Amino acid sequence: xxxxxxxxxFLVAAVLLPGAAAFADGGAAHKAAQTVPVKLxxxxxxxxxxxxxxxxxxxxxxxxxxGTVSYVLSNNHVLARSGAGVAGEDVSQPGLIDSGCRPRxxxxxxxxxxxxxxxxxxxxxxxxxxxxxDSTGAIxxxxxxxxxxxxxxxxxxxxKSGRTTGLTCGPVTSVLTxxxxxxxxxxxxxKKFTVKYNDQVIVGSSSFxxxxxxxxLIVNAATAQPVALLYAGSSTTTIGNPIQDVISALNxxxxxGATHSVSCxxxxxxxxxxxxxxxxxxxxxxxxxxxNQHASGLLSRRGVQGVGxxxxxxxxxxxxxxxYVIAGADHAPLPDSIDGVPxxxxxxDRFRAFGWNETSEANCSx
Length: 366
Fold this sequence. Notes:
With 366 residues, this protein is mostly beta strands. The chain has helices at residues 28-31, 76-79, 243-250, 281-299, and strands spanning 4-7, 42-46, 54-60, 62-66, 69-74, 90-93, 105-113, 124-128, 157-162, 166-186, 189-204, 217-220, 226-233, 237-242, 253-254, 304-311, 319-326, 337-338, 341-348. The protein has three domains: 4-17 and 29-128, Beta Barrel (Thrombin, subunit H); 157-272, Trypsin-like serine proteases (Thrombin, subunit H, Beta Barrel), CATH 2.40.10.10; 275-348.
C-alpha cells in the first residue's frame, strides 16, 4: 500500500513533482539487486504480495533488535500484506516489482506486525537470515543511522532513503497530526478501507517520497537519529509514525552508531514555510491543546482528512492549527482561527498508503 506495484506485463515508472525536497539518484541504486549482506533503504517486500495482474513492493527500512534477534523494520502493509501475512513468509531484495515479479534474494522472513487500526502505527518486522543484511544497520546514502531515537519537531529538516526516490530531504511542517489514511486489501486489488492515526509527523514536500518508499526510516538530517517511519502521504505530503510509537508497539531498539549529519542533495533547498521559524515551545503547546479539543469535530467534517500543529504563514512567531482538506472535495467553510489560535488550510489529494506522486499511466502502485 504505500508501496509500488508492478503489472505482470509492464513496470510503472514514478514521476516526481518539483518541491522543496530533492533526491540524489532518483532511486535507481535503491531498486537494484545487491550482493549480500544488503544495505537497507532498498527495494524489498513479502514474496507473496501479488495478485492476478500485479506484484507489490516497498522499502526495507532499517535494522533493529528485539531482544537478541535482528529484524528488518518496515510497514505492516509491506511485510505483512496489510495483516494478511503469515509468519515465516519470505522477504526478498529487491522487491518483486524490481525483479519481474519473481523473488530474487530472500534476506528475511516476516515475523510479526502491529495490527492496523488499533496500534496507531503501520509497522512490522522480518527476522534477518544469517549474513543476508549488513549487521551495522547501514542504510543507502544515509550510512549507519544513530542508534538513539529522536523526536520530530516543526521545521526540522529530515531525510529518508527509499526504494523509489532514493535519498531525499525536506521539512517537518506539522506534528501531532491526526489523519485518515486510505488502504487497499490486496496488491492493487481488493476493497479499500480507511485507518485513522493520531499525532503523526507530516513532511511538507511534493518530492520527499512516492509510491514504493513505504517503510523508509525518516531521520533527523542533522543527527541521523530515527524520528519517524514513513507509511503514507499525498502528492504534497509524506506521513510518518512517530518513532517512539513504533518502538513501543514492537518492543525494538535500533542497530546503529553515533550521531552524524546526513549529506542532503545540494539541490535540496532544505527550506520550509517561513511561518514555522521562531515558534516558541509555549505557542506550540497552546496550539496542541486547542487542536486536541477540536480535532475530532474537524475530522468529522466532509473533506477534512487531517488536523495537526505547525507554524503560521502570517506570523513567524505564531503557532497554527494545520487543517488538511481533500482537494476538490466539498466541505463547509473552515474557521480562520480556533480559540484564538490561527488555522492554516492545506489542500491536497487524499492521504493514501498506496501509490501517489506517480503517473496515472497504469494506476498500479501502492
